[in-house]
Write a structure and sequence with these properties.
Elements (H helix, E strand, L loop, with lengths): L1 H23 L2 E4 L3 E4 L2 E5 L35 E11 L11 E4 L9 E5 L9 H4 L7 E6 L2 E10 L4 E3 L7 E12 L1 H4 L6 E9 L93 E4 L5 E4 L7 E3 L8 E3 L37 E7 L5 E7 L4 E3 L10 E7 L2 E9 L2 E6 L11 E3 L4 E3 L173 E4 L11 E2 L7 E7 L9 E6 L9 E6 L2 H4 L8 E4 L3 E5 L10 E9 L1
Parallel strand pairs: 4-5, 18-19
Antiparallel strand pairs: 1-2, 2-3, 4-11, 5-6, 6-10, 7-8, 7-11, 8-10, 9-10, 12-13, 14-15, 16-17, 17-18, 19-20, 20-21, 21-22, 22-23, 24-27, 25-26, 26-31, 27-30, 28-31, 29-30
Length: 730
């Protein structure tokens, strides 16, 4: 029963498919013998077969729709946090500790910096060492003007930050950076001590991506229709037969060629005339007989007697001996007339010599041996060569003298080249008679001397460069016995229309060279520009109020249409000294006190508003100290702060038992004595010291070598630590 139901179901499905296929193509089955399309009969069926006209394959059923994909979860946003700190810009240095509350760049042009040094203390005295230690590569640092956000520098950390002076009050971090962007004064350099924000931008991790939704199920594909039965192909009709080709007609005969006309006859050639008879040979000339060989020269005497001129050596000249006289051969003939010829050649071989010899005679002569004349018919004497070997150019009236070998004359000016002494070449200019003392220039390949005869020994116009050899160059003027002679004076030119906004030094001494020493330590100073100490003397007792090894008259003064912001008589610009290695200490200027005077000072600053300093730091180590009875019995030793000097510092003592009133608490001895007794100022450095006052107040006295702290009329408290800040001023 079940099988029967399945068979009926399949039959129904098959019938529905055929109906769908036929109606899809607009065709209707009529009876068993006709097929119509759109109501018109289009074919007969004699075999009772079903034909489908059109596509042989039925259409494919449509694919079911794909289920909708689930939505993708949203990406989490980047987490961010920013720390903001207050700092001041440090522009006077480009390396090392920027000092508390400051940061610095390692390049004077800030946006070209590759690292930034940041103090662990901010401008408002916050210690952020722990936050600076968290900095990592690719984090962002922003430096911004506190008052204008348009002035900024945006940096990316490009390397691992390094902490220097770890754990000390001078701790700072050096952070490798790369500039990302800048604006305003952040591009043109923040000024010294400019108030800045330091922002540290921390970027959190990116949120996870949401899960992708499941894909919907694919719909069931429709069934493919059955392929219809292809119709039969009709037979091809037979091809008709090709008709036969007709026979070709015969070719007609060629006509005969006409006969050629007869050529006219050629006229006969006339007969050749007879050859005339040969004339008889003339008689031989008189007195001409065979003399010598072929190619010889023959001469005739006055009576027509012939003779042979014998052969001579190659190179001889054939010269006349006068009218009626037989010419003679001569290897060195004397020519009594001018020899006109455009060219003299010494020979055909490379290195051939053309020799000019003025005479065959012996002896000396002061006249020119060879004269070279040019111009109109040789009227101008261009050069003379004397028997002494001296050469005179452009004049025959002035002898070159005993020292010169070459003189070039132009009008009234002479230039002579020769020797002052053997081995010393010399040049004379405008010297009518060269001598060993009035030369212009002389040199023996070791020393070159310019010997000017006037106050201007050497005047070089439009000088661009003077190059010297590898040896040491020395400039040693001659000593003068009188007058006010300045050995060397350089006057800068009064240039005009110099390039706008460009430094143009009046004197530029460049030391930007890279010189190498042999391996070894150098204990004495290496000074690139060294001026030795002069000694002044007088023929009788004299007094000089002020003398100086180096003196500057004053700072630059303003001229027409110019205004100065700052003018300096002496300026040392900031320059980086950490080329390959890093020096321990660097000083812009060092002044050592001289010795030997009644009072010896390292420096003197006179007049004006005083001395403008960023910081004043003592240049000595800590002084020494001893306790007195004002500190009691068995007090502690006197100790000083680590950075104490003769100038300032902290001094500490802990009292023992029974401190004595109005007695010396401690005595401090300076490392270097002062010129006069200085002023010593004390400030309490701890709570116990701050309580001293009235009858317990201590006081100080000083000498050139010490200062003393003395107890008041009531002694100090026993077993108590007392600490003072001291400042010493002379």
């Amino acid at each position: 029963m079940l099988f029967k139901k399945i068979f009926i179901l399949l039959l129904i499905i098959f019938t529905i498919q055929w109906v769908f296929i036929i109606s899809a193509y607009g065709q209707t089955l009529i009876g068993a013998n006709q097929i119509k399309k759109d109501g018109v009969t289009i074919g007969a069926n004699a075999s009772n077969q079903l034909y489908v006209i059109g596509s042989a394959t039925g259409p494919t059923g449509s694919t079911g729709a794909t289920g909708t994909a689930g939505a993708t979860g949203a990406t989490g946003a980047n987490g961010q946090s920013t720390n903001l700190w207050l700092y001041l810009a440090k522009t006077s240095i480009t390396s090392g500790d920027p000092l508390n509350g400051h940061l610095l760049w390692n390049n004077a042009t800030q946006i070209n910096a590759t690292s930034i040094n940041i103090s662990h203390l901010t401008d408002d005295n916050l210690d952020i060492d722990i936050f600076l230690a968290l900095l990592q590569i690719n984090q962002t640092l922003v430096l911004q003007d506190r008052n204008a956000s348009a002035n900024f520098q945006n940096w990316k950390i490009s390397g691992t930050p390094t902490n220097f002076n770890i754990g000390l009050s001078t701790s700072y971090w050096s952070i490798p950076v790369t500039l990302v962007s800048s604006g305003g004064t952040g591009t043109t350099n923040f000024s010294s001590n400019h108030q800045l924000f330091l922002a540290i931008l921390n970027t959190g991790a990116t949120g996870a991506t949401g899960a992708t939704g499941a894909t919907g199920a694919t719909g069931v594909a429709g069934a493919t229709g059955a392929t219809g039965i292809a119709g039969t192909t009709g037979t091809t009709g037979a091809t008709g037969a090709v008709g036969a080709t007709g026979a070709a007609g015969a070719t007609g005969a060629t006509g005969s060629t006409g006969a050629t006309g007869v050529a006219g006859a050629t006229g006969s050639t006339g007969a050749t005339g007879a050859v005339g008879a040969t004339g008889s040979t003339g008689a031989a000339g008189a007195n001409l007989t065979a003399v010598g060989a072929t190619g010889d020269l023959i001469s005739f005497s006055a009576t027509n007697t012939q003779s042979n001129i014998s052969a001579v050596a190659t190179g001889s000249l054939f010269a006349s001996a006068g009218t009626g006289t037989i010419p003679v051969w001569s290897a060195s003939p004397t020519l009594t007339t001018s020899l006109t010829t455009p060219l003299h050649i010494g020979g055909t071989a490379v290195g051939s010599t053309l020799t000019f010899q003025s005479t065959t005679g012996n002896g000396t002569s002061t006249v020119a041996g060879l004269a070279f004349n040019v111009g109109n018919n040789g009227a101008t004497n261009a050069m003379n060569i004397y028997n002494s070997g001296q050469v005179l150019v452009n004049s025959s009236t002035v002898n070159p003298g005993a020292l010169g070998i070459l003189r070039i004359n132009q009008g009234t000016s002479n230039t002579d080249i020769g020797e002052t002494t053997s081995g010393v070449a010399a040049l004379w200019m405008l010297a009518s008679t060269p001598s060993t003392t009035n030369y212009t220039l002389r040199s023996n390949n070791v020393t070159t001397v310019i010997n000017g005869s006037s106050t201007t020994a050497l005047n070089v116009a439009n000088l661009v460069k003077i190059s010297c050899g590898v040896s040491t160059q020395s400039f040693t003027p001659s000593a003068s016995a009188s007058g006010a002679l300045v050995p060397f004076t350089f006057t800068a030119p009064a240039n005009t229309n110099q390039t706008l906004s460009t430094e143009v030094p009046g004197f530029f001494y460049t030391l930007a060279t890279n010189r190498q020493w042999a391996t070894g330590a150098l204990a004495t100073p290496q000074r690139e520009f060294k001026i030795d100490q002069p000694t002044y003397r007088s023929s009788a007792a004299s007094t000089f109020t002020d003398v100086a090894t180096l003196g500057v008259v004053g700072a630059p003064t303003t001229g027409v249409n110019i205004v100065f912001t700052n003018t300096h008589a002496f300026l040392i610009s900031a320059g980086a000294v950490n080329g390959v290695g890093t020096p321990t200490n660097s000083y812009g200027i060092t002044c050592n006190a001289q010795t030997g005077a009644t009072n010896n000072f390292a420096a003197q600053f006179v007049g004006g508003l005083g001395v403008k300093l960023n910081h004043l730091i003592g240049n000595t180590t800590a002084p020494t100290g001893v306790v007195g009875t004002g500190a009691g019995t068995t007090p502690s030793a006197v100790t000083f702060s680590a950075n104490a000097t003769d100038l300032a510092g902290d001094v500490l003592v802990t009292t023992g038992t029974l401190p004595t009133a109005t007695a010396t608490v401690l005595t401090v001895t300076f490392n270097t004595a002062y010129g006069v007794a200085p002023t010593v100022m004390l400030f309490p450095a701890n709570a116990a010291t701050a309580l001293l006052g009235g009858v317990t107040m201590v006081y100080t006295t000083s000498t050139t070598t010490t200062f003393v702290i003395t107890a008041g009329s009531t002694g100090l408290v026993a077993a108590t630590a007392y600490s003072w800040h001291y400042h010493v001023i002379q």
